[in-house]
Amino acid sequence: MDHQEAAESLVLVRPRREAEREWLSFLTRLARRRTALFGLVVVVVVMLVALFAPWFSPFDPLEQEITQRLRAPGWQDASGRVHVLGTDHLGRDILARIIHGSRIALVVGFAAVAISGVLGMAIGLVSGYFGGRIDDLFMRLADIQLAFPFILLAIAVIGVLGPSLQNIIIVIGVSSWVVYARVVRGEVLSLREREFVQAAVALGSQDWRVLLRHVLPSAFTPWLVVATLDMARVIVVESALSFLGLGVQPPTPTWGGMLADGRVYLSTAWWLATFPGLAILVTVLGINLLGDGLRDTLDPRLKL
Amino acid sequence: MKVYLIRRLLQSILVLFGVSLVVFLILHLTGDPTLLLLPPDATAEEIHRFREAMGFNDPVLVQYLRFFRGAVQGNFGDSLRHGEPAFALVVERLPATLELTAAALLVALCLALPAGIISAVRRNTPLDYVTTVIALLGQAMPTFWLGIMLILIFSVQFSLLPSSGRGDLEHLVLPAFTLGLFTTARITRLTRSGMLEVLGQDYIRTARAKGVSERPVIWKHALKNASIPIVTIVGIELGTLLGGAVITETIFAWPGVGRLSVQAIFNRDYPVVQAAVFVLASTFVVVNLIVDIAYTYLDPRIRLR
Questions:
Q1: Is pTM, for the whole model, over 0.90?
Q2: Cβ–Cβ below 8 Å for B22 and A153
Q3: Residue B53 in domain
């Protein structure tokens, strides 16, 4: 191996190692915050449960056994199988339904955040970078968007279009861009004046290139924090829609739908409504703590 | 100052225009409002006549202008179910929603301000930890679940409070706490961080150095300055509360606009839906305008902008 080759391989190896080290240091800094670590663990567990739901689930979530309806938590059926969290009004295992319900929550969460995140990022970049009329237009649109009690608009639109997984994702996704756009725009406003961006412009880079190569990577951090915290909100909105009967339709298990079922049996079977709500609470708490941790680690100045 | 107010007023009017456009578009989402408004067994003849009568064959812009003219005068057509004007139905329910929202906000402020201040002053004590944990839980708890749990405990288990309807103060307790909890959690955290920030400022140290006792330092010097972001968030939270009222009203059978609109959606009573969305959004816009104006009096620095 001659010198030149050695030098090349060195150059190739170094950046990756440095990037790795940066990741590691970021992770250790994040993990040092105990609450953030707790959040991270919760999020990872919920994601694993959703991914491998059939393996985790003790029962088929749709399997009805009408003779075993409304059994209390810990009930053991004739064949010795235990319903840890009890059964619902159709004799379905509640734990199994909660495990499978996490899938809808996470799918809607990720998909809606992806739509609103990309939309908001694009609007924020363009608005902040070009300013002027375009900026005015988008910011007025944001004002209009914020004037609506979100959940009411969502149920009105879904009421007209009909409830389906796709419609729920689109409605939540399209109407949640404002927070992203505002945060990214604020970031771009200050980035625009920084030397490295000015230099790129001075060297004759085209606008889209400056935006994508130089501005976007720096605006990514606050965006990520917003996306994490927004995910928690989206999961609550999804379960609220399901609770009102405008979510993914039965028999598919959803946390909100289970709560709505349980509400009817509140005086006789408390476990029906209690456990799905706890699932939402723990998931949302975990995501919030992770988001807070990300914010404090990545960008303590960010006020959200 | 005047320029700011006028600009702010024009902005609000512009937003209301946008609100009316979105409300108009709700009916046109599927392309043909006739199918939404008429029962599914309507004959072709009926559909044709209805379309003519409602002007659905006109260009969309003409239809929107007609809708806007009606909306401004409070005319959204008659409720398909009740036969009365939709706007009147909504306005009739508005006081109930405002009562619930105001009560929730009152609960939130009464709990959150002391909790946030004590948490900041007694930083890193068990009291602070307990408050912080409760606030975190409050922010993660879905309204509808909290409502159901409160009913389970206070109505089903102990029969202390009524779980549905509107009447005396007793009926207001559970819905107001349910609706107010998220806002309580948010304002608590904001008050805590705001107070912590202000308490670290030089003028607080100066006041203490001059021998001002602890009580006026916290309640006068610090709280006054920490209250500015709190006022802003109260304006924003009102939107959250008005939206949250939709679900809280449904759980507690509270006869407000939110419950009316949820029922209207399931009855496919779209004039009522449109009127409800328009009225709630307008309420929010007007309240925010008032908050902004109040704000300029609280914080003279804004007037200079």
A1: no
A2: yes
A3: no
